[in-house]
Amino acid sequence: MTSRDSWNAVRARRWLRKCAAVGEGLRLDGRPTVEYYGGRIRIGSRLHLASRPVASHLAVGPGALLDIGNDVSIGCGAAIAAFQHVQIGDGTRVGPFVIIMDTSFHGSPGDQSLQHNCRPVMIGVGCLIGTRVTITRGATIGDGAEILAGSVVSSAIPPGVCAAGARARIIGRAGDPASRWDSAAAVLPNMLMASLGLDSPPDLDSGPIPPHLWTNAGIGAVLGAVHNRFGVELDPAAVREIRSFADIAAAIQRVLWEH
Amino acid sequence: MDVGPCNLRPARAGGLQAVRGRWLTFRQSVSRWGTRLKGGPSWLRSSLGARLWLSACNQVGANTRTFWRPNIENRGRIIIGANVRLNSHWAPIELVSGPDGVIDIGDRVYINYGSIISAQLRVRIGSNVMIGNYCIVADTEIPGIGDPPGKPSIAPRQIEIGDGAWLAARVTVLPGSRIGAGAVIAAGSIVAGDIAPGDLAGGIPARTLRAR
Asked: What ipTM did this prediction achieve?
């Protein structure tokens, strides 16, 4: 341990001195803003909290508990506000510019009139929370779940799934190469526009495919494009079942998961 | 998809003028010095600042300037072209390269404040690219923080941004993305996958809003 490391450790302890408990191996990059309005912050071992280039920000309201487990890493610009209870499980990794709040709004010190409708936020063990995710009050994220970048989580996410979207929905299993933003559902509209010769990328939720597009030639073009992009062949029985654009994405996803 | 040509810096054979990518006429050269003299201390400070604050980079082209101090964490390789401007005025820019990471920034790139560029594998930014404030360009899922020990990490995938692309404010570029030459990404978008050259794209994830 160099003298610089030990100096950083001393500074980190000082910055978080009002926390109820701080484990060993704390690592802070830059100084976070920590605001205590009368609550407690419990931090486990080996927390890595980045505050560069943008400062991260922890706030605990009166009587609230912010509980951060062991081996948690949190990116820069994160805003975590607990006015009742926020729990982040062991080994969870949180990306930059994430907002986690168990209240609809939190005011400045002295103006506590705006906290209402607090509901605890529970984040499980070993989760992966992507860049710029917003986690609103009452959200529960199961162990090992993965939330893709830019999503908004406001409900319960079961363990081990991958969820994405504004109001996050389950799109696959966590850690699966197919459950990414550039997976079938994300890539398909542009692919359909190219292979079916449409003017604009179709909306996947737009209902049944118009019959004049879904001819043998159209099906062939789409299947060719699917093969080029994802390297999979769709089962002819599955192709006959397809009624809407969303069905195509689901069929591709099903084949990808079987691989 | 081809993201278009990446004009890497020409060889340093022909002196200072050639490093900037083309020869200048006498008149252009005079007018360029005129603007510098008009800029005065600010030009001097930003040029000297680049010398000082970009000293951790492996290669920095001529006339590259920094406004206030960026954070550079270079464990791999960072190459910055000529006439690049890095604005760190309200929040610093962060350039991070891991042990095997390469950040390759072309000529005449403008990067605005608060942006994070992180490479564990390779991030290539072409010439004439504009990157807005608070953008994140990272080839790992969660930039800036390492994997906890004993956990399998998701492999980084390289990012390419073609010449003349424009990323508006708060754009996130996810691993494995390729943005074509001259593409425009709308503010707040999250880019995953390929954006064709010249397209206007936006949304989460970014889709083509207007084709070239």
From this structure: 0.75
